[in-house]
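Task: sequence design from structure.
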């Protein structure tokens, strides 16, 4: 078993992903997990008075009022990174995937990340270097009725902020893949609006 202590530093602002309306959050969590205790804990972390705007996404807070990331958000980033990086190298002449990196070598990578790679603690406090701001941007979607434009609004933690957590690999061989995914964080970050560069980060690892 390999344990790595990871220190992230955001080089771009990172956006909150949680709906500020608790009923929306409760329904979403309930659809993902049957654990009632977990539902109430996670909904409570948003804070009843966090933001009045129902359309705004925010950061959950811990008991000290500090914004946090949940462990599964980091694991979600790992899955996104692995899925993209596994496409590098294309396919061989026989149609098989050509493994050009560690991500490409993993088969059923989502199951591997779910069952063999763990992030601790569950709530990861974010160390803010400045005030939490708001980020508003238009969202465009092509529908049967034509282009639809709406306004999205999110809490935004400034660049230079960071967080620390542990990654536990039950199989030591997965350490290289985890480092590869964290390297990818400089190009594609965590949180909302990643395609614009939000949530990108650098990192340091200590054993």
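Answer:
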């Amino acid at each position: 078993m390999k344990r790595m202590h990871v220190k992230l530093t955001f080089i771009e602002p990172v956006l909150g992903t949680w709906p500020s309306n608790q009923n929306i959050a409760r329904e979403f969590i309930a659809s993902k997990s049957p654990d009632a205790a977990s539902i109430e804990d996670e909904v409570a972390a948003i804070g009843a008075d966090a933001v009045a705007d129902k359309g705004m996404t925010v950061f959950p807070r811990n008991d000290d009022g500090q914004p946090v990331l949940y462990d599964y958000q980091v694991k979600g980033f790992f899955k996104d990174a692995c899925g993209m990086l596994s496409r590098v190298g294309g396919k061989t002449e026989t149609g098989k995937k050509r493994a050009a990196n560690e991500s490409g070598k993993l088969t059923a990578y989502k199951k591997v990340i779910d069952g063999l790679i763990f992030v601790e603690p569950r709530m990861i406090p974010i160390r803010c270097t400045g005030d939490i701001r708001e980020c508003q941007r238009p969202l465009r979607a092509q529908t049967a009725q034509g282009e639809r434009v709406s306004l999205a609004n999110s809490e935004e933690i400034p660049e230079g902020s960071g967080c620390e957590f542990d990654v536990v690999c039950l199989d030591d061989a997965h350490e290289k893949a985890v480092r590869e995914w964290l390297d990818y964080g400089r190009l594609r970050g965590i949180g909302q609006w990643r395609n614009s560069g939000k949530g990108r980060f650098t990192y340091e690892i200590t054993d």
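The chain has six helices and eleven strands.
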